[in-house]
């Protein structure tokens, strides 16, 4: 494959179908292999600059999805479900 263009950019909802397919292919032997569009929208709405993709020839080649967490609200034995606000990326444990 010839590489004509590599771009690092913020994820948008327009990228969702391609991102979904990449997640399905990447995690094919795991259950629930991709985030729902509503989860991606929530991540973008809450912290757009933390959701990035790398595109090679205008196709997604990789991504990083992230959230900002006030670690003081959690102890060392927290769960992923707790840290993500029950996968909603909204209010977190002990947050006012």
Structural summary, described in words:
By secondary structure, this protein is α+β, with helices and mostly antiparallel strands. The chain has one domain. Helix content is 27%, strand content 17%. It is built from three helices and three strands. The protein has helices at 16-26, 37-47, 80-83; strands at residues 6-10, 52-56, 59-64. A three-stranded antiparallel beta sheet has the order 1-2-3. A hairpin with a 2-residue loop joins β2 (52-56) and β3 (59-64). The mean pLDDT is 89.
Describe this protein with a few key phrases:
96 residues, globular, alpha+beta, 3 helices
Describe the secondary structure blueprint for this structure:
Blueprint (H helix, E strand, L loop, with lengths): L5 E5 L5 H11 L10 H11 L4 E5 L2 E6 L15 H4 L13
Antiparallel strand pairs: 1-2, 2-3
């Amino acid at each position: 494959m010839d590489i004509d263009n590599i771009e690092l950019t913020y994820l948008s909802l327009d990228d969702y179908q391609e991102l979904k397919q990449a997640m399905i292919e990447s995690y094919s032997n795991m259950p629930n292999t991709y985030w729902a569009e509503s989860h991606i929208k929530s991540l973008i709405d809450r912290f757009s600059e933390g959701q990035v993709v790398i595109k090679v020839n205008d196709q997604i080649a990789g991504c990083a999805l992230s959230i900002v967490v006030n670690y003081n609200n959690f102890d060392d034995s927290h769960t992923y479900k707790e840290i993500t606000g029950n996968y909603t990326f909204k209010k977190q444990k002990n947050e006012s």
